[in-house]
User: Which sequence fits this backbone?
């Protein structure tokens, strides 16, 4: 008899959590269950395997109860059993339930048929005549429908010809195959229902690729993170295939379409090729301020520092669990990491040694963010936020107020305000000057996964523009908040599934968003409207702007990275 082991079941649960968007839960469960030691091949297990497995089991139990050697007379639309019966009763009990219900059904059918037979004899001739008339009418209708269809196709062909002529006359600069990238100037602002968007799939090498999109292939598992280099045309990506990659774009001025620009790639292996150990997801990555070094954090609990040429400079090994967050300070002499092991560590990047270990949380550390070169904040599943400082052995400030896991934290450009978001459906804004929050932002209906400050206001290159906070939620919306008033400016309703990532353009005028619905949207911050959109074949984990604000990178669950050209 075929059976399933506890290890295989754990793996199916892990995959279910991961595919359902419970990223933190998946990592924590995988770590405790030793999924990294499982020999299962990711490519051999289809998406939704656990649900399929359970559904098949229920179907088997139902069939087992409905079928027997002498009892094969079944109604085509039988529904004799309820799911709770299948779970709580053994096959014999299920069979008896079905047998009893079938017997009642047969008796009812017998009595009904007897009555109907008496009536039907007189109506046989009438029904025959009616059937003949019905068939005749159906044939006539089929001829009419076929004629109508041919006329519509002829008209449609004329319309398409006219549309092509019109496009050629007025848009000679643009290609006709720009199907999935659209300018949507008048859609989706506050209060509107999710808009209708083209469902065209992401182009593949066999398709006519859109000139505005470059598809980067090479990863063999989901791509969780991506980040542009702050000083060069380099894009880093991190994947579940235990590699990071650095994609190098042309140094030449971008006069040609991004689709035609040559790209070289460097593969940063996080495991030796000879090892038989399970792949380690590259969960997070970050460039230092001058773009000379790339730090990566991995499921194996190690942080690594690489040169921009792909050479491994150092391996930072002290965490006892997966690393979820990794950030350089502005000066570039310290690297900060947060882990499932409940700790945060500051590393001296010049020596490759850890400088200080911070053990203040009672649950996994989900995010970290520098306030300045020596102080930072951490958040955790324990619902707490700690502000820490190098050299201090207790938090210099602790914020409590969230009622569930705190997923992300971000300091504003001046380091005076701290924003946080949580599974309790709220985002909050804090100040070191007081213990309680400044604003409690409660407009979301589900968990808030991430937040971002606009690069505007005091201390930025756009000091005259208002500072804005963006929050992205599992309720499929993005909210833009007025920081001074603590109120919603816009509710951006263009997505249909959880939104995992948002990013402001360098000038603060646009916001990119990526969702599990496979769409990248670029919004006008001023108007709260979509100005450009692109759809792929997988959910989107992260979006990121380059330093010039003319390209948006996105990483997908179907193993690819794409770069969207954005020149308005």
Assistant:
């Amino acid at each position: 008899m075929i059976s399933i082991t506890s290890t295989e079941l754990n793996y199916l649960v892990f995959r279910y959590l991961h595919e359902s968007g419970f990223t933190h839960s998946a990592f924590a469960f995988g770590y405790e269950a030793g999924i990294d030691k499982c020999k299962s091949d990711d490519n051999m297990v289809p998406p939704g395997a656990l649900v399929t497995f359970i559904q098949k089991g229920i179907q088997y139990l139902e069939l087992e109860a409905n079928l027997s050697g002498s009892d094969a007379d079944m109604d085509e639309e039988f529904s004799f059993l309820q799911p709770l019966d299948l779970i709580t009763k053994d096959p014999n009990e299920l069979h008896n339930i079905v047998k009893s219900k079938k017997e009642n059904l047969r008796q009812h059918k017998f009595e009904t048929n007897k009555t109907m037979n008496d009536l039907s004899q007189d109506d046989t001739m009438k029904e025959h005549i009616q059937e003949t008339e019905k068939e005749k009418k159906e044939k006539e209708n089929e001829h009419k429908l076929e004629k109508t269809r041919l006329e519509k196709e002829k008209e449609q062909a004329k319309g398409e010809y006219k549309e092509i002529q019109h496009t050629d006359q007025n848009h000679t600069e643009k290609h006709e195959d720009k199907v999935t990238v659209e300018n949507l100037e008048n859609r989706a602002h506050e209060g509107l229902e999710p808009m209708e968007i083209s469902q065209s799939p992401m182009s593949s090498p066999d398709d006519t690729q859109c000139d505005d999109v470059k598809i980067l292939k090479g990863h063999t598992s989901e791509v969780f993170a991506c980040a542009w280099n702050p000083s060069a045309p380099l894009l880093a990506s991190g994947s579940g295939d235990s590699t990071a990659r650095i994609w190098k774009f042309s140094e030449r001025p971008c006069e040609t379409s991004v689709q035609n620009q040559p790209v070289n790639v460097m593969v940063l292996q996080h495991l030796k090729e000879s090892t038989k150990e399970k792949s380690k997801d590259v969960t997070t990555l970050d460039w230092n301020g001058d773009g000379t070094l790339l730090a990566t954090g991995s499921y194996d609990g190690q942080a690594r520092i690489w040169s921009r040429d792909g050479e491994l400079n150092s391996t930072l090994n002290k965490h006892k669990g997966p690393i979820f967050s990794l950030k350089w300070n502005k000066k570039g002499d310290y690297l900060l990491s947060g882990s499932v092991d409940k700790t945060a560590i500051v590393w001296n990047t010049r020596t490759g040694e850890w400088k200080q270990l911070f053990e203040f949380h009672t649950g996994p550390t989900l995010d970290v963010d520098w306030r300045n070169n020596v102080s930072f904040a951490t958040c955790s599943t324990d619902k707490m936020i700690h502000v820490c400082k190098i050299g201090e052995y207790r938090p210099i400030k602790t914020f409590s107020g969230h009622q569930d896991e705190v997923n992300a934290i971000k300091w504003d450009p001046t380091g005076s305000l701290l924003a946080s978001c949580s599974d309790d459906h709220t985002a909050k804004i804090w100040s070191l000057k007081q213990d309680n929050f400044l604003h409690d932002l409660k407009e979301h209906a589900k968990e808030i996964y991430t937040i971002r400050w606009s690069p505007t206001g005091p201390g930025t290159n756009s000091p005259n523009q208002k500072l804005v906070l963006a929050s992205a939620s599992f309720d499929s919306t993005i909210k833009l908040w007025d920081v001074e008033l603590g109120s919603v400016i816009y509710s951006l309703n263009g997505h249909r599934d959880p939104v995992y990532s948002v990013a402001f353009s360098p000038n603060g005028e646009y916001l990119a968003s990526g969702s599990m619905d496979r769409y990248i949207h670029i919004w006008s911050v001023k108007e709260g409207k979509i100005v450009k959109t692109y759809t792929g074949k997988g959910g989107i984990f992260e979006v990121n702007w380059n330093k010039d604000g003319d390209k948006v990178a996105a990483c997908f669950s179907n193993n690819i990275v794409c770069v969207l050209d954005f020149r308005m």
